[in-house]
Amino acid sequence: LLFLCVCTSELERKLRANDREYNFSFQYATNAIKTNKYNFFTFLPLNLFEQFQRIANAYFLFLLVLQVIPQISSLSWFTTVVPLVLVLTVTAAKDATDDISKHQLSNLFPVIRLRSEKWMDVQVGDIIKLENNQFVTADLLLLSSSEPLNLVYIETAELDGETNLKVRQALPVTGDLGEDIEKLADFNGEVRCEPPNNRLDRFTGTLTFAGQKYPLDNEKILLRGCTLRNTDWCFGLVLFGGPETKLMQNCGKSTFKRTSIDRLMNILVLCIFGFLAFMCTILAIGNLFWEVNEGSQFTVFLPRQNDNKAAFSAFLTFWSYVIILNTVVPISLYVSVEIIRLGNSFYIDWDRKMYYGRKDTPAEARTTTLNEELGQIKYIFSDKTGTLTQNIMVFNKCSINGKTYGDVYDYTGQRLEVTEVKRVDFSFNRLADPRFMFHDHALVEAVKLENPEVHAFFRLLALCHTVMAEEKREGEIYYQAQSPDEGALVTAARNFGFVFRSRTPDSVSIVEMGQQCSYELLAILDFNNVRKRMSVIVRSPEGKLSLYCKGADTIIYERLDQSCSKLMEVTTEHLNEFAGDGLRTLALAYKDLDEEYFNQWKQRHHEVSTALDGREEKLDELYEEIEKDLLLLGATAIEDKLQDGVPQTIEQLSKADIKIWVLTGDKQETAENIGYSCNLLREEMNEVFTVSGNSPEDVKEELRSEKVLKNTFLPQQNKSSLNHFLSDLVNGEYGLVINGHSLAYALEHSLEQEFLKTACMCKAVICCRVTPLQKAQVVELVKKYKKAVTLAIGDGANDVSMIKAAHIGVGISGQEGMQAVLSSDYSFAQFRFLQRLLLVHGRWSYLRMCKFLRYFFYKNFTFTFVHFWYAFFCGFSAQLGLEMSYWTAVNTFFVLGSLGMYFAVTFTMYSNGMFLMVPPAFPFIGTAQNSLSQPNVWLTILLTSILCVLPVVTYRFLFIQLCPTINEKVQVRQAKATPPPPPRRTRIRRTSSRRSGYAFSHAQGYGDLVTSGRFLRRPAVSRSSGFTNIGRTTTGFSPMGRSAGYSPTGRPQNTKAPDVEVTSLQMYRTFRDPAL
Which of these, 316, 271, 286, 331, lies nearest to 66 by C-alpha position? Predict the structure, then answer.
């Protein structure tokens, strides 16, 4: 169970060791976390709610409701229930499987807390014990460990992706607790620290114990997600648990990345809904007219009630056709698309041409939803170090006191290739690294001659770092460095006689030209992306206080003493030469400190270190105060070679009209040289512009003065439509180089559009001296205004923000850990594999998806139009034109069969390398409009349906008018005939009023008249001719009717009718019986 009752207004955290009652009063979160979305009771409602947020699923649920209404539906309800339930079940099963695995891994790891417990049972203020190779349970304050000086070694690969071991050290006052259970149980230290946050590299707090305050920083904290290495055991105090740990604070929701195909499908589905409503409206109107004009003539065939209304019938017909024409809405579209994407991801994973055998690293598609977007890339944002280069640093050259070392010259002054020169022999140093290579013998001779500047240079390299040394055997030293640069510099110092041997929290031990020396470590002014430098303050064995500093040349030059001006000029020339060779450079400086001044500074440093408010800012001010008036020693140049195939890859991507921007933290000269080396910048370019202004006005002027803008017409429009007139078409090819401080001004709101216009007109852009935040800002700027698909590729933790900001992130599994890979969508080991990922898999995936969608929509529209046209021949009565069971079987068989056959053929044809990459032969950008959105696709569907139905339509509407059928002739004749007069009502006698023949003999009759024959007369022609009414029920003709001249009472009536009636009666009887 996850408790989220943490006070939202928490400004600082207070806790007391081994006092759960005190800590519980603050209602801190427990160590239980919830990475799963569902539980047993919420799975069904939550999952269904999520699934019905898809328009297609919600539509078919609405369709099911309509089908249970008998007045509307002509289909059985199971025709909709079966596919809907199938889709929902498959999706729910996938979600349940993923969630169950997360739930099982969330809180079930055991942790030793003097007794075996689960992670979820740990609470803030508990003291727990960890053993070697165990995951750190929560964010802990390290109390003690099994290692000397209370050191612990941790691996943070799961936290920041870096695979090298890091060291943490406990306070001496808590280190004395050791593993004494009684002392640990009696420990009642009180901690005040920062509230929960997501800053992995910072921590501020104080520990109050035995009346004393001790500062706490990140070097004394073990974060959840780390792994304990090379340490038997350690004890820690829980500071943050569960969702409040820094690991979980960094697990915010990642931006959901959607492809252009997804957006296009959503638009198409909405359009299909509108088209469905349009078709149903047309058919409902047709039903209305048919009922009004023709419906009454078909009552014999289609009986209807007299009170039926045409409008109500049309209303019901509309909803009936919504059900019948539902096949036009693709309910299985999303599931089918995901299956195809999964297959495309397997193709990427199985591609042997993207497998790096040296490190046994295959390509990996870490997401299955972006494959087809790879074929739509317009902009690539790439890191340099470790991405374009190998990130294997080698000490190549250096400049010491105005003299360069590293190049070898012959007697004529010509520089020789290193392959022509014998390697330097380091046999004089038994601790040298045998893998280190250097070819300039002059530097070794200067070391042997004890040149003071050279010795100070390498002494700085041996002392100013945070490298950890591990010596398993005598003389076999292995360095664990946070960056390859530091490892290369310490290794160089080691080979030239200044060997870093070991360190403690208070000292650094080195071997200087064979002599063991121990320097007291007084302070470390650590490196960060803002400072761009690192310093250490040490006391030599002779008692001399010194500050050693190394960092970016521009940063160091700002803090040098004025006496170094001449040396600065010479060293600057050397730095430019190094950068021209594509080398990474650092400047080195030092200063001697006064003992009294340092003691005052140290006291203020301790006070600031124990402050909770503004600690970082106050520390930076103290660092600035002491890091000034430095004396320049020289500069280093480290080689970082290009990876194999980088120039060819960039050339091919450029031919595909993909623009590549390099965002690097290196200096401008180094970045430019790498740009030329990898064919990003070429001598054939018209011009390469450089922006290096130191103010917003200067940057704006430089951007506007570029020659490329003078020959480009840009119509003025409003700001919201900037993306409509950002033209990439210019006369010629141009490049742009901009440094970090100028980029900071260019990214301001007032200049970002000017910068983007200039950059987008260039074939290549290089941004140097940039921070991780600036990398992400550049990507976001292009996404905001260009509306183009972007890709970011990098290998280090400083590239994570850029990778997450881009539409597609690619991680290089290189030397800087796995953080970039863990944050990426695709990963592989070499930059050259990007060519195959985009130009082969991206194109194939997009074309496969487009072909599938075109076939899918064609199939749905073709089947639906059959019912639409059939409505014109069934009186718009919402009848089915096909047997649904037959169509379902055919649809399922051919859809699945065609997909299986297509993938089988595709795998056979393409996986063996038969496809040759020829970028100019096919377009990459804008294929969405050319493949799926082009009008001829929908025109083909429409024309095919019309051509199939046109013969029948022509026959029915034209030939029927010329040759009507017999039934139609009869119907027309009956419609034109004069209707007969309504029949008169026949008088019906009651049975009791009838009399027998015997009753008439009781009254005087007309016997004498009959015998005399006087009653005979000519019959009336109007009554007797033709006997047209014989057999019809008419008044006065039935033999069962009343007798002539008599009323029901037997009284004579005073009329002339009796003679006619008697005559007619006799003639009727004569006709019926000739004998009469």
Answer: 316
